[in-house]
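Structure in, sequence out. Go:
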């Protein structure tokens, strides 16, 4: 399988105001992403409110829709004489290794191209425990993207540990959301520059440009829920070495990079999408709509960025 490069949207899950899933809104959102040129999709991640979704009814239906829509779009492109790979990177993490193996197996069986597996959270396992967790999921037989986000898990995957994990079979890359550009560069230097099929994807929209400029491969983006074409263009320009052009888009979007997380995620991006009339809708407790001050920040950023 080709190395992951480009912009990949960490999809929200559209809901109605009563908190029920808006499946047609989900279908519309996916189609907008595909028409916007997104390089791939990341359903059922944290941005998708997966902890609050029903895994027996809602999640399988969401998976079926995203896979069928991507397949239909690729068939449409082929009929037009075009061919484009649009990988689906399925969220499949848990702090219970047995459950994580089950989620990864489900991703494989239902037709995902990759599984995104987060560091076990809350348990705060040792480095050896984290290694064995990824060793277990790697045996399922689908490419794995390691998701390192200490702010949510309470545990940073050090570069020493990631070097070890990267040698396991089926470990295809990392979504690096440590917030440290220094750590990201260390991962690039010590892993991806030596293991050329290993992808290093940024997990922070605002750090995409510097990370790609340093040798990274792209971004798993929240902001691209609202403006996929701009995030794709910025990322591709940076990958192509046109840093000046990428910088222009980066600074245009910079106020929204901040506003999209002003009162949490996915609460802030969902409100921004609601303002723009895009599928978004309600939230499920413990998440609630952003506060009034955050609404003003988000609305101002949308205007400033001309979104």
């Amino acid at each position: 399988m080709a190395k992951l490069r480009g912009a990949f949207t960490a999809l929200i899950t559209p809901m109605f105001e009563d908190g029920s899933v808006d499946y047609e809104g989900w279908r519309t959102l996916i189609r907008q992403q595909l028409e916007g040129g997104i390089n791939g999709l990341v359903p059922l991640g944290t941005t998708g409110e997966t902890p609050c979704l029903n895994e027996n009814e809602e999640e399988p239906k969401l998976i079926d829709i995203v896979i069928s829509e991507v397949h239909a779009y690729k068939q449409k492109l082929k009929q037009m004489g075009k061919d484009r790979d649009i990988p689906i990177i399925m969220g499949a993490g848990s702090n219970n290794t047995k459950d994580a193996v089950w989620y990864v197996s489900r991703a494989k069986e239902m037709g995902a191209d990759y599984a995104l597996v987060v560091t076990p959270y809350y348990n705060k396992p040792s480095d050896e425990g984290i290694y064995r967790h990824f060793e277990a999921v790697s045996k399922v037989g689908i490419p794995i993207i390691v998701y390192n986000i200490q702010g949510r898990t309470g545990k940073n995957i050090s570069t020493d540990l990631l070097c070890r994990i990267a040698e396991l079979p089926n470990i295809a890359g990392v979504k690096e959301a440590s917030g440290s550009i220094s750590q990201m560069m260390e991962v690039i230097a010590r892993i991806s520059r030596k293991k050329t099929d290993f992808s290093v994807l940024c997990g922070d929209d605002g750090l995409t440009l510097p990370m790609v400029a340093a040798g990274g491969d792209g971004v798993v983006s929240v902001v691209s829920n609202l403006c996929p074409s701009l995030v794709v263009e910025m990322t591709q320009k940076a990958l192509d070495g046109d840093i000046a052009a990428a910088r222009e888009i980066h600074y245009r979007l910079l106020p929204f990079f901040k506003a999209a997380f002003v009162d949490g995620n996915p609460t802030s991006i969902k409100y921004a999408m609601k303002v723009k009339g895009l599928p978004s809708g309600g939230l499920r407790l413990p998440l609630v709509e952003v506060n009034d001050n955050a609404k003003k920040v988000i609305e101002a950023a949308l205007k400033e960025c001309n979104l």
